[in-house]
Amino acid sequence: MKLSVIIVSYNVRYYLEQCLLSLVRATEGIETEIYVVDNHSRDGSAEFISERFPKVNVISMSHNSGFASANNVAIKQSSGEYFLLLNPDTIVAENTIRESVAFMDNHPEAGAHGVRMLKSNGENALESRRGLPTPMTAFYKMCGLCAKYPNSKRFGRYYMSNLPWDKPAQIEIISGAYCMLRRKALDEIGLLDEDFFMYGEDIDLSYRMLKGGYENWYIPSAILHYKGESTQQSSFRYVHVFYEAMLIFFRKHFSNIGFLLSIPIKFAIYAKATVALIKTQLARMKKGLGFFTGSKKKEELYVFVGCSKMIDACQAIARRNGLNATFKETDAETYKGHSVDDFNRADIIYVVYDVNAFSYGSIFGFFSQSPKHNVFIGTYDIETGVVITPDDIFK
């Protein structure tokens, strides 16, 4: 078996379905097995995927064992020369996996690599390339120097922002949202550390890969990462688990640093976690008070782009859900991309593309050419009859 794709899922049924449909295109011609590990979802994901994709190996966990543990369960069962750890809230462009496999075949020194991840508005996600969060690198990130001097090799090392986006480059930390691993390397350095329930396990794995004598790489092939559909990042649990993971990593790999140096670093982590919690609580309060204070709701516009069959179906969906919508019937041969200047009358715009008429790669290209902070990627698949955006699902 050439490739084993492993997806750990939790209550993201329709995003997972979309991810798997993109994988069908992206793995064409590659000997592939796909594992979905359902971490005790409550939305019927396991049964739905088993019925919808009979060739996918579905593992139903009896409880939510965490990301690292769930991945390890599938890794032990799989047989691929390479593993791909993939988040369920992603869409993979048609050429990405073929380019990934070819890169690993041509670079035997590479233990793992990640790809160019796009945000839901087409911007490059900074976490596509990261440096090892040593105490000083983490300090520069938390005190704001990383954001102020992003292209500095020293201050901007957390995101390695000095590297070009359009060329392969060696990096230190690979995101677990898309991480292709060499089986031989994983056999040598060991599986994911299950002390990490969620977050931090990718940092630990990447660091152990480097310590094992392998290289970690970034390649400019694209995926879309909705980021957050599989977790609630505004919750207390998210903040607690995220910063606890940072402390686990710090204790595991940097416990030998001086006691006096460790105190301000730990203090900074706790302080950052506290500030994050306060911000999320204030945001919730503000959202709740908006109803009573009469705050104006942001105007949303849905722009549907595709073939006549898609337009007819989406007109019905828009009516049922009371969406402010406009429609553009076209095809991939004549369409040159959306012009966001035409949509300035709305605060938030979702451009929903017909994925049966357009490739995922071309859709990513439309957005990444000129990303806007308020214009987001949406998709519609005639096969599923579902409209998916970063914020909502409509049927």
Question: Helices and strands, in N-to-C order?
Answer: EHEHEHEEHEHHEEHHEHHEHEEHEEE
Largest sheet: number of strands, sense, barrel closure: 9 strands, mixed
Distance between the termini: 37 Å
> Would you report the number of β strands?
15
- Average the pLDDT over all residues and give the rounded result: 88
Percent of residues in helices: 25-40%
Number of helices: 12
Over the alpha carbons, how many angstroms does the gyration radius reach?
21 Å
Shape: globular
Low-pLDDT segments = 229-235
Q: What amount of the residues lies in strands?
A: 15-25%
Computed structural class: alpha/beta
Characterize the structure shown.
It is built from 12 helices and 15 strands. It has 395 residues and is an alpha/beta fold. Strands 1, 2, 3, 4, 5, 6, 7, 8 and 9 form a 9-stranded mixed beta sheet that branches. A 6-stranded mixed beta sheet has the order 11-10-12-13-14-15. Helix 5 runs parallel beside helix 10 and helix 9 packs antiparallel against helix 10 (259-293). Mean pLDDT is 88; it is low at 229-235.
Keywords, please?
395 residues, alpha/beta, 6-stranded mixed β-sheet, 15 strands
Topology:
Elements: E1 3-9, H1 13-26, E2 32-38, H2 45-52, E3 57-60, H3 67-77, E4 82-86, E5 90-92, H4 96-106, E6 110-118, H5 135-143, H6 145-148, E7 169-171, E8 178-182, H7 183-189, H8 201-211, E9 215-225, H9 236-253, H10 259-293, E10 300-306, H11 308-321, E11 325-329, E12 348-354, H12 360-369, E13 375-381, E14 386-388, E15 393-394
Parallel strand pairs: 1-2, 1-4, 2-3, 6-9, 10-11, 10-12, 12-13
Antiparallel strand pairs: 4-8, 5-9, 6-8, 7-9, 13-14, 14-15
Helix pairs in contact: 5-10, 9-10
